[in-house]
Write a structure and sequence with these properties.
With about 675 residues, the chain is of the alpha+beta class. It has 24 helices and 18 strands. It folds into 3 domains: about 300 residues, Thrombin, subunit H, CATH 2.40.10.120; about 70 residues, no CATH class; about 260 residues, no CATH class.
C-alpha cells in the first residue's frame, strides 16, 4: 500500500510543479515533461540554430521587457507599461497619446523612437571550457575574473565578426559554474504603431497592480524596421519593415482551466538557491523596513495628490514606481512567511551539513552565514540610505546639477524637467519623515559624522529642514537654470549639496568597499554551494537563476485560492471592467466609447485577462504566452501579489502570472482604435 501511494505521488508531482525558467537551448531536457502536460511541438520548434524556431519571434524590448513578432512585416507586441516612456515622449498637450491613445492608420504615420532597440537571439552555446581555459584552482578570485574577462572578450569578438548589428555576451549561470555565449542581432529602428488610452492600457493603475481580478489592457504595438537588405540599420525613411525568420500565429480559441501555457521571455533576476540567512535578511529586515519607509512616502504623496489635480499629474509616475516595488515586497514577505521558507531552508541546511561532513563542502553554509553577518550591517546601511536620504528630491537635484557643472554640461534642461514635476511641500514633508527615520533607526556608528554634527547644530530634524529649504538655491528654478561651471564653488557650498556630498563620500569610503569585498566572497562561496546542492540532490532538475537571458517557463491556466473561503476564477471579462468603472476614481475611469459599446450589449463575455502557473519575473513583461500548438494566446504583464515570493521560492498553490488575453487586444485595436487594418498582416491560427 505504502509503495503504491509512493508511485502515485511520483507520477503526480511533476504534473503540479510548474516551477522553473529553463534555457531554450537545453529545452530537450524538459520536452518530455512539456509534452506530458500537453505541448504538441518539439524542442526544435522552440529553439534551433538550423531552422526558424519560436525563439526567432521573441525579442528583448528596450532594456528590460520582452516583445513578440506577430507578422511577416515586423509587427511587434509588448506591454503598455513597456512602451509607456516612448508613448509619453511623443505626447504633448495637443496630442496626448498617453491619455487618448495612438493609432497609426498607415505606415507613414508610425512614429520613430530614437534610442529604442530590440534584440533577437541568434544562438546560445555552452562555452564553459573556453571561458575557464587557463584557470587553475590555486588562483584568487580576482585572477579568475581576469582569465574569464580575457577569454570572453576573445569569444565575443569572434562571434560578432562579419555580421551587421551583432552583439555577443558571455553570461555566468549557476553562480559561475557554467558560462553561455549569447549572440544577438540588434535592430534599432523600432516605430510606434498603436497604443490604447491609459484608461485601458493602465486600467486599474496602482490600485489593481499585482492583483487579481485584473482588467488591464496592458499592450502597445510597434514595428521593427530594417535596411533594404533586411539587416539592422539606423533610422531612415528608406528603411523597410523587417522580415522575420519566424512570427507567431494568433489563436482566438481562448483559454480554460488546465490548458497548457508557455511563456517565452527574459526574466531579470531571481535567487532561488540562497541560504536561510539571506531569506531571513530579505523577509525580516530588508523588505519590512523598505515597505515601512515607502508607506510613509506614499502617504505623504497621496495626501497632496488628492488635494490638487496638478500635483496628481506631477506625481503619478513617481508614485507608481515607488508603489510598484512597495506592493511587491509586501506580497513577497507574506509569501515567504506562509511558506516557512526560512525554517524550510534551515531544515535543508541541517541535512546538507550532515551530508557534507568531512568532504569538500563541509563548512560552506557556516561560511556563508559568517559572510552575511559581516555584510548585513553595511548592506542595511546602504539600503536605508537609498530609501531615505536619496528619496529627497532636492538632494538628488543638487547632486545631479553639481555633477553636470563639473562635467561642464548645461543644467537648464535638467532644471526644467525637474521643476515640471516638483511639488516642494511633498519634498519637505518627505525630508522630515525620512531624516527622522534615518536618525531613529540607524546605528549611531553608521551615521555619517556630517549627519550627527548638523543635527546637533540645528537641534532637530525640523529645524534642519527649515534651514535647508530656506537657504538652498535648489528650491529656485530660475537660479538653478542659470548656473554655469563658474558657480561650482558656490554650488558645492550650498547646504543641499554639502549634505548630499557628505553622504556620497560616506557611502563611497565606509560602506561600499565592505559590501564589494564581502560580495565577491559571497559569490565565490555560492559557486561551491550551487554545485554542492546539485550533488546533494542529484534527482532534482536545477534551472539557473534569471539574468535577463531568454527562458522558457511552462505551466497551465489555473485560478487559485488567495485566502480561506475564497476561490479565484482564472479569467476576467469586460463585465468586470464595467463593474469597476467609476468616473470619480482616476484608476477606474474608462473611455466613454467603451461604456457606449458595452451598453449596446453582446460584449459581456469579452475576455480580458487570464491566470496561469508560469514561473515569471520582472522582465517577463510583454512576453508571449503560447498554447499547446505554439500559437499566441496572450501577453504576460504581471504576477499575483500572493505569489511574488517566486523570485525566491515558488509555491504551486498561489504563484500565478497574469496575462492579457490576446482577444482583448484584438477587440481594443478594432473597436477603440479602429485600426483593424492591422489584422490583414497578422496570421490567425483559427
Ligand atoms: N507590476 C507590474 C510590473 O512589475 C506592472 C507595473 C506597471 N504598472 C503599474 N501600475 N505601476 O512591472
Ligand atoms: N510587470 C513586471 C515587468 O515589468 C512583470 C511582472 C513580474 O515581476 O512578474 O517586468
Amino acid at each position: 500500500m505504502a509503495l503504491l501511494l509512493l508511485a502515485v505521488v511520483a507520477v503526480l508531482q511533476p504534473l503540479s510543479a510548474d516551477e522553473g525558467m529553463w534555457l531554450p537551448a537545453l529545452i530537450s531536457q524538459r520536452i518530455t515533461d512539456m509534452q506530458a502536460k500537453g505541448f504538441k511541438l518539439t524542442a526544435d520548434d522552440i529553439y534551433s540554430v538550423n531552422q526558424a524556431s519560436l525563439k526567432d519571434a521573441v525579442v528583448l524590448f528596450g532594456g528590460g521587457c520582452t516583445g513578440e513578432i506577430v507578422s511577416d512585416e515586423g509587427l511587434l507586441l509588448t506591454n503598455h507599461h513597456c512602451g509607456y516612456g516612448y508613448i509619453q515622449r511623443h505626447s504633448s498637450v495637443e496630442h496626448d497619446y498617453l491619455k487618448d491613445g495612438f493609432w497609426a492608420m498607415n505606415r507613414d504615420e508610425e512614429l520613430p523612437n530614437p534610442g529604442l532597440s530590440v534584440r533577437f537571439l541568434e544562438r546560445m552555446e555552452d562555452v564553459t571550457d573556453a571561458v575557464l581555459k587557463g584557470y587553475v584552482k590555486s588562483m584568487t578570485e580576482l585572477q579568475r575574473d581576469s582569465v574569464i574577462r580575457v577569454n570572453s572578450a576573445g569569444l565575443i569578438s569572434k562571434a560578432v565578426e562579419g555580421g551587421k548589428g551583432l552583439r555577443a555576451t558571455v553570461e555566468a549561470l549557476y553562480y559561475g559554474n557554467q558560462y553561455f555565449l549569447f549572440v544577438y542581432k540588434i535592430y534599432r529602428d523600432v516605430r510606434l504603431v498603436g497604443a490604447p488610452p491609459s484608461s485601458i492600457g493602465k486600467f486599474g493603475g496602482d490600485t489593481d497592480n499585482w492583483m487579481w481580478p485584473r482588467h488591464t489592457g496592458d499592450f502597445s504595438i510597434f514595428r521593427v524596421y530594417a535596411g533594404k537588405d533586411n539587416e539592422p540599420a539606423d533610422y531612415s525613411e528608406d528603411n523597410v519593415p523587417f522580415r522575420p525568420k519566424r512570427s507567431f500565429k494568433i489563436s482566438r480559441a481562448g483559454v480554460k482551466t488546465g490548458d497548457f501555457t508557455f511563456v517565452y521571455g527574459c526574466p531579470g533576476s531571481t535567487k532561488e538557491y540562497v541560504t536561510s540567512d539571506e531569506v531571513r535578511y530579505v523577509s525580516e529586515i530588508s523588505d519590512p523596513q523598505k515597505i515601512d519607509l515607502r508607506t510613509k512616502r506614499l502617504d505623504i504623496q497621496k495626501k497632496y495628490m488628492s488635494r490638487d489635480q496638478a500635483v496628481r499629474i506631477q506625481y503619478s509616475s513617481k508614485n507608481a514606481s515607488v508603489s510598484n516595488a512597495w506592493k511587491k515586497w509586501q506580497g513577497e514577505v507574506k509569501g515567504i512567511k506562509k511558506m516557512h521558507t526560512v525554517a524550510a531552508k534551515e531544515d535543508f541546511e541541517a541535512r546538507f551539513k550532515q551530508w557534507a561532513k568531512g568532504g569538500e563542502y563541509d563548512g560552506l553554509v557556516e561560511k556563508l552565514g559568517g559572510l552575511y553577518e559581516r555584510r548585513d550591517p553595511f548592506y542595511h546601511a546602504y539600503e536605508y540610505y537609498s530609501e531615505t536620504i536619496r528619496a529627497v528630491e532636492l538632494l538628488q537635484l543638487a547632486s545631479s546639477v553639481e555633477r553636470s557643472l563639473i562635467e561642464k554640461r548645461p543644467v537648464k534642461g535638467l532644471a526644467e524637467s525637474f521643476f515640471k514635476d516638483y511639488y516642494q511641500p511633498i519634498d519637505e514633508e518627505t525630508f522630515l519623515a525620512m531624516f527622522d527615520a534615518f536618525d531613529k533607526n540607524m546605528d549611531q556608528g553608521f551615521k555619517p559624522a556630517y549627519f550627527r554634527d548638523e543635527l546637533a547644530r540645528h537641534g532637530s530634524v525640523q529645524a534642519w529642514k527649515d534651514y535647508l529649504f530656506a537657504n538652498s538655491i535648489f528650491t529656485d528654478k530660475d537660479k538653478v537654470a542659470s548656473l554655469t561651471p563658474e558657480d561650482l564653488d558656490k554650488v558645492a557650498a550650498d547646504p543641499a549639496c554639502e549634505l548630499s556630498d557628505a553622504f556620497t563620500a560616506w557611502y563611497a569610503e565606509l560602506i561600499s568597499p565592505v559590501i564589494t569585498e564581502v560580495n565577491s566572497e559571497i559569490r565565490l562561496a555560492y559557486r561551491d554551494y550551487m554545485r554542492a546542492q546539485m550533488a546533494f540532490e542529484p534527482e532534482k532538475a536545477f534551472y539557473p537563476d534569471a539574468n535577463l537571458t531568454l527562458r522558457v517557463a511552462y505551466g497551465q491556466v489555473a485560478g487559485y485560492c488567495p485566502a480561506d473561503g475564497m476561490e479565484y476564477a482564472p479569467v476576467s471579462t469586460l463585465k468586470g471592467i464595467i463593474e469597476k468603472d467609476n468616473p470619480d476614481i482616476f484608476d477606474y475611469d474608462i473611455p466613454q466609447t467603451l461604456r457606449d459599446l458595452y451598453a449596446q450589449g453582446g460584449y459581456e463575455d469579452q475576455p480580458v485577462c487570464f491566470l496561469a502557473t508560469n514561473h515569471t519575473s520582472g522582465g517577463n513583461s510583454g512576453s508571449p504566452v503560447i498554447n499547446a500548438d505554439g500559437n499566441l494566446i496572450g501577453i504576460n504583464f504581471d504576477r499575483v501579489w500572493e505569489g511574488t515570493m517566486s523570485d525566491i521560492v515558488y509555491d504551486p498553490e498561489v504563484c500565478r502570472n497574469i496575462s492579457l488575453d490576446i482577444r482583448y487586444l484584438l477587440f481594443v485595436v478594432d473597436k477603440i482604435g479602429h485600426a483593424s487594418y492591422l489584422f490583414d498582416e497578422m496570421n490567425f491560427a483559427d
